[in-house]
């Protein structure tokens, strides 16, 4: 089971590791898009866009529906939830560390500074 989860996360993060694919997911979060619509902002061929979409499909984040000669893609957010659950563990880790740092800094600010010692030399002498 752990290996399966690890493989799934590897596939998800691999798919998310490319800016073009992340942008495509952003478009699909708004609504369905054809392969041509997903390719358009990147001035890439339909074949290149299709390769990116295939990676997203393999990660389970995109569904492709063939309607005649048109391929329509839609977002399946469930795998993103798996990645978010994994990331939450680290979010808690950093939140706890930052909360501890904040407490330490506030405690340090609450302690008055020690009185300043006079500089060595003769009293009353101008410098």
Short note summarizing the structure:
By secondary structure, the protein is mostly helical.
Topology, please?
Layout: H1 2-16, H2 19-30, E1 33-34, H3 35-39, H4 46-58, E2 62-67, E3 70-75, H5 78-110
Antiparallel strand pairs: 1-3, 2-3
Helix pairs in contact: 1-4, 1-5, 2-4
GO molecular function, one term: DNA-binding transcription factor activity
Domain HTH arsR-type: 1-95
Pfam families: HTH_20
Cα Rg: 28 Å
Helix content: 55-70%
CATH architecture of the domain at 2-77: Orthogonal Bundle
Tell me the number of strands: 3
Under CATH, the topology of the domain at 2-77 can be stated as Arc Repressor Mutant, subunit A
What is the CATH homology-level superfamily of the domain at 2-77? Winged helix-like DNA-binding domain superfamily/Winged helix DNA-binding domain
How large is the count of helical segments? 5
Structural class: mainly alpha
Q: Within the largest sheet, what's the order of strands?
A: 1-3-2
Strand content: 5-15%
Distance between the termini: 76 Å
Low-confidence stretches: none
Sequence of secondary-structure elements:
HHEHHEEH
Mean pLDDT: 88
Query: How is the main sheet built?
Result: 3 strands, antiparallel
From the spread of the alpha carbons, the general shape counts as elongated
Q: Mind telling me the CATH class of the domain at 2-77?
A: Mainly Alpha
Organism: Sphingopyxis fribergensis
Protein name: HTH arsR-type domain-containing protein
Region (Disordered): 106-127
GO molecular function: DNA-binding transcription factor activity
């Amino acid at each position: 089971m752990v290996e399966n989860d690890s493989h799934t996360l590897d596939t998800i993060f691999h798919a998310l590791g490319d800016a073009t694919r992340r942008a495509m997911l952003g478009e699909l979060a708004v609504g369905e898009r054809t392969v041509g619509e997903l390719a358009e902002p990147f001035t890439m061929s339909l074949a290149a866009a299709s390769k990116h979409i295939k990676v997203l499909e393999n990660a389970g984040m995109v569904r492709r529906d063939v309607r005649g000669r048109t391929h329509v893609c839609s977002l399946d957010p469930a795998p993103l939830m798996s990645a978010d659950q994994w990331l939450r563990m680290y979010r808690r880790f950093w939140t706890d560390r930052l909360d501890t740092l904040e407490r330490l800094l506030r405690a340090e600010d609450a302690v008055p500074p020690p009185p300043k010692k006079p500089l060595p030399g003769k009293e009353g002498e101008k410098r």
